[in-house]
Design goal:
The chain is an alpha/beta fold. It has a domain of 207 residues: TIM Barrel, CATH 3.20.20. The chain has 12 helices and 10 strands. It starts with 28 loop residues before the first helix and ends in a 25-residue tail after the last helix.
Length: 357
Amino acid sequence: MSSREFLKGRGAQKNTENRFLQHVFEMRDDFLEFCRLEGEEAENNKTQYIPIFPKTIVNKVDSPDVGMGYSMNPYQGCEHGCIYCYARNTHEYWGYSPGLDFERRILVKKSAPELLEAKIKHKNWKAHTIVLSGNTDCYQPAEQKFEITRKCLEVFLKYRHPVGIITKNALVLRDLDILKKLNEHRLIGVNISVTTLSEETRRKLEPRTASIQKRLKTIQVLSENQIPVNAMLAPMIPGINSHELLPLAKTVAEHGALSFGLTVVRLNGAIGQIFSDWIKKAMPDRAEKVLHQIQDCHGGTVNDSRFGTRTRGEGKIAEQIHEMAQIARKRYFKGKVFPPLNLELHEQYKDGQMRLF
């Protein structure tokens, strides 16, 4: 397989059409051949950071399957490049492709801390856990440059407001100082995504994420500092990582995780096309088997949009995954509890300092 056929360091291998755009940009084979003969690059594979200026930053989550009430995303698009990511479809709303554009054109919300502060200071706002991030990773590589997530955590601490974090990047440990202060008031819970124990699988599925060892070390360090950690063993993909569920659960428990969650993969929207193209190039020997097993979990298709079943799946394979999860919880998480966050302090700190009278 030539380097032109498989783009290393990226998840998606092409840009799919944007369903909202009238015109379609197509990279033709004859143009690619011309570029090869001329020694030119057909397209720039470097990541672009594009500033945007939203009016709001906190989003109400209506889906009953997600398990959070409010979320916020300092970045749109994600350089991690996870091939299965459901957030890819949201890039279409910005006029980009959910394929390579999602990984290479990162939209940066520098005003996020100010927007967050205005939101939680509003007189009608009542404390609810706000999750960083419900869509794209708040500790993706862009965070090293812009530090928006850190500034948002400082806002949460200032106003004693509960916050959750979802990430698969060890960069979260950079902010351990703030996390420890938040945890003194039971205001923080961290969700670390661990999809596989195999580095080879990780590099294919999630090409620009932290290594598995770094993620396990992150769970360990957070736990040693009494910061509650939930491990996200998601998504479970039949034929790729679903057979790892029990050893995954055992390993994250040994490193200090208090609980774990999982979903069965679904390839909604354009992700079906992106994933199918990727797996036929990255894992050609098992591509059809994996796609058929995913279909078996969703009534014969790769996507199910029904609330209640879309993230659980159905059928024998999905049932086996959830049975293994029950065994894992009884075997490795007995007596462990992920604590609720503190909603009581924020009202006293709404003006930025403790009310004395």
